[in-house]
């Protein structure tokens, strides 16, 4: 199975936007902005179940995001039994999985229920999200 390099669907709990940092908010604005040449605005689909959202992302392309926020500074999803398995599958399909700072599969666990932020999906969409999150936006 191969995840498309490009996608047109972003999956994030947009109800938490007020808790996200400025880079994350800017990426969401980018996703909603109209740009016919780039096929935006993107479709927003958020089921609230990582497995279901990841299934769609693997098949159709896109990005699933559960970022750190003001309430969950270390993210909310568990590294070892939520993020690592999905990162393994996504990378095997040609996608990317990152905390925003490092590759998910390179995070060394420090505790059993360790939580991390996650940006996972199509290569181009994850890279674009990272350009916003790291403050290095490219048009």
Mean pLDDT equals: 95
CATH class category: Alpha Beta
Oligomeric status: single chain
**Which blocks of ≥5 consecutive residues have pLDDT under 50?**
none
Strand content: 5-15%
Gap between N and C termini: 30 Å
How many helices? The count is: 4
- The CATH topology, please? D-Maltodextrin-Binding Protein, domain 2
The secondary structure category is alpha/beta
Helix content: 25-40%
**Over the alpha carbons, how many angstroms does the gyration radius reach?**
14 Å
The gross shape turns out to be globular
CATH architectural arrangement = 3-Layer(aba) Sandwich
Q: Give me the side-by-side strand order of the main sheet.
A: 2-1-3-7-5
Largest sheet: 5 strands, mixed
List SSEs in N-to-C order. Answer: EHEHEEHEEEH
Total domain units: 1
**How many strand units?**
7
Verbal overview:
- With 139 residues, the protein is of the alpha/beta class.
- It has one domain (9-133): 3-Layer(aba) Sandwich (D-Maltodextrin-Binding Protein, domain 2), CATH 3.40.190.80.
- 34% of the residues lie in helices and 14% in strands.
- It has helices at 22-32, 50-60, 79-92, 123-133; strands at 9-11, 43-44, 63-66, 77-78, 96-98, 115-116, 118-121.
- The strands form 2 sheets. It has a 5-stranded mixed sheet, with helices on both faces.
- The longest helix is centred in the middle third of the chain and has 14 residues, at 79-92.
- It is globular.
Give a quick summary of the entry.
By secondary structure, this protein is an alpha/beta fold.
SSE topology sketch:
Elements: E1 9-11, H1 22-32, E2 43-44, H2 50-60, E3 63-66, E4 77-78, H3 79-92, E5 96-98, E6 115-116, E7 118-121, H4 123-133
Parallel strand pairs: 1-2, 1-3
Antiparallel strand pairs: 3-7, 4-6, 5-7
């Amino acid at each position: 199975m191969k995840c498309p390099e490009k996608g047109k669907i972003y999956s994030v709990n947009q109800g938490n936007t007020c808790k996200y940092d400025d880079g994350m908010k800017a990426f969401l604005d980018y996703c909603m902005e109209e740009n016919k040449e780039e096929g935006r605005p993107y479709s927003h689909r958020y089921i609230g179940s990582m497995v279901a959202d990841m299934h769609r992302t693997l098949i159709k392309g896109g990005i699933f995001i559960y970022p750190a926020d003001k309430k969950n500074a270390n993210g909310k999803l568990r590294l070892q039994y939520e993020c690592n398995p999905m990162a393994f599958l996504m990378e095997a399909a040609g996608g990317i999985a990152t905390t925003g700072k490092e590759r998910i599969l390179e995070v060394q666990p420090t505790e059993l229920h360790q939580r991390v932020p996650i940006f996972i999906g199509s290569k181009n969409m994850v890279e674009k999200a990272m350009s916003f999150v790291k403050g290095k936006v490219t048009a």
